[in-house]
Design goal:
Largest sheet: 5 strands, mixed
CATH architecture: 3-Layer(aba) Sandwich
CATH topology: Endonuclease, Chain A
Length: about 150
């Protein structure tokens, strides 16, 4: 199937997709900052360059987009064209995520993953509830937290 836009237009569209400061990430940061948490952003010295780093709590949070990280929810739909390319892309993203999480846990960091579907769409959680879950996890000693849409 031929693309409906020119290669130049597609390139411009793809370059507009951000990996940092995404809407889910900003929502998490805003809510946690209002609760008094202080953090660093995208620490390049840590495996996987976590979205939000809480050094005082020895915890990190990744705000995973359901499409780019191939989450099994209503927000993910496999593209119908170039499926081989997308399969490889999603497989590689999954491997990178897995290695980063294992490395962080091995280095005694606690890892939280908040999926995009927990923040938007038909399965989103109430915002205050989501922020409270994250805050409670940061105050706990649990090593891993995963929040998905309901």
């Amino acid at each position: 199937m031929v693309d409906v836009v020119t290669a130049q237009t597609r390139s411009r569209m793809m370059s507009g997709i951000r990996s940092n400061n995404t809407q889910p990430e900003l929502m998490l940061r805003t809510g946690l900052h209002k609760m008094g948490f202080r953090y660093r952003l995208h620490d390049k010295s840590l495996p996987g360059k976590p979205d939000i780093v809480f050094p005082r709590h020895k915890g990190v949070i990744f705000a995973h987009g359901c499409f780019w990280h191939r989450h099994n929810c209503h927000l993910f739909k496999m593209p119908s064209t170039r499926t081989d390319f997308w399969e490889k892309k999603f497989d590689r993203n999954g491997e990178v995520d897995k290695r980063a999480i294992e490395s962080l846990l091995d280095a005694d960091w606690r890892v939280g993953i908040v999926w995009e579907c927990a923040l938007k769409g038909k399965t989103r959680l109430p915002y205050d509830t989501l922020i409270s879950i994250c805050a409670n996890w940061l105050h706990s000693h649990e090593r891993l937290m995963v929040i998905e849409g309901s």
